[in-house]
Write a structure and sequence with these properties.
By secondary structure, the protein is mainly α. Helices cover 82% and strands 0% of the residues. It has 2 domains: 221 residues, no CATH class; 26 residues. The chain contains 9 helices and no strands.
Length: 263
């Protein structure tokens, strides 16, 4: 009958033996690493889900947006893509654009360059906010990567120091006396590496993904601003605007005169 071989480390109970022989300081170090690992894995799982949904909903939003000509068409259609960072950026810009259009006093459906500057500021702020949202929690992973091995090493060095101090006090410098203490000290480094290695792979993967999404956001913000400028910004020369304002004032004056002379 075929049996699945068990790894010698697990079969011999080496980890359990080492933990039992660890000093109180070493066990405290392992507990700290355990909680750091919990925080690390919570960030890994949460961030992985966030990045997956961001890419999924962003693809849907870009499909819907690319199918339109008017930069406000998606918003006027009440379509929502809640997990897409680009959609939240788009919504912020569209809301500001509608506000500026409501304040506009020139050509119908057009805004001034100063009003367009306000829209661009909102887009830049939204892009920054989305980048911060994507990077939230990554400090925990970087701390696990950089600090996990050092915390484990601290526990190991402390445990070895305690072991040798105990051997010196007992005057029993034998392998049998040293081995349990050294094993108990080394488990702290093992646990530190077990915390840092998954965090390192996850951190590198997620940083690359976040960088790609933020670059996509910056590109979309620039394209969105250009489309707004082409569709809704009044880029006529100052002379044309003055002429239009004078003509409008003349029409208003003629209308007032006609009302004044009406019997």
């Amino acid at each position: 009958m075929y049996t699945i071989p068990i790894h010698p480390l697990l079969a011999s109970g080496a980890l359990q033996f080492a933990f039992d022989k660890a000093t109180p300081e070493g066990k405290a170090t392992i507990i700290v690493l355990f909680f750091l690992s919990l925080f690390s894995w919570s960030i890994i799982l949460t961030k992985a889900r966030q990045l997956y949904l961001s890419r999924k909903w962003a693809a849907r939003f870009f499909t819907a947006y690319n199918a339109t000509r008017d930069p406000l068409e998606v918003k006027r259609g009440n379509a929502t893509f809640p997990a897409a960072p680009a959609f939240r950026l788009y919504s912020s810009g569209a809301t500001e654009l509608e506000y500026q259009l409501g304040k506009a006093t020139g050509s119908a459906g057009r805004i001034s360059n100063s009003a367009f500057d306000a829209v661009k500021v909102v887009l830049e702020e939204a892009a920054g906010a989305e980048a911060m949202r994507l990077e939230k929690g990554m400090i925990v992973l970087s701390t696990a990567v950089a600090g996990g091995p050092f915390i484990g090493l601290l526990g190991t060095v402390w445990g070895v120091m305690e072991t040798f101090a105990g051997i010196a006090r007992a005057n029993a410098a034998t392998l049998t006396a040293m081995a349990p203490g050294v094993a108990g000290a080394l488990i702290a480094t093992v646990v530190g590496l077990l915390v840092a290695i998954p965090a390192m792979f996850a951190y590198n993967f997620m940083v690359t993904s976040i960088r790609a999404i933020t670059q996509e956001l910056d590109g979309f913000a620039a394209r969105y601003a250009t489309q707004i400028e082409h569709t809704y910004v009044d880029n006529r020369d100052l002379e044309d605007k003055i002429v239009e304002a004078l003509q409008r004032a003349s029409r208003i004056k003629d209308a007032d005169n006609s009302l004044a002379f009406r019997p």
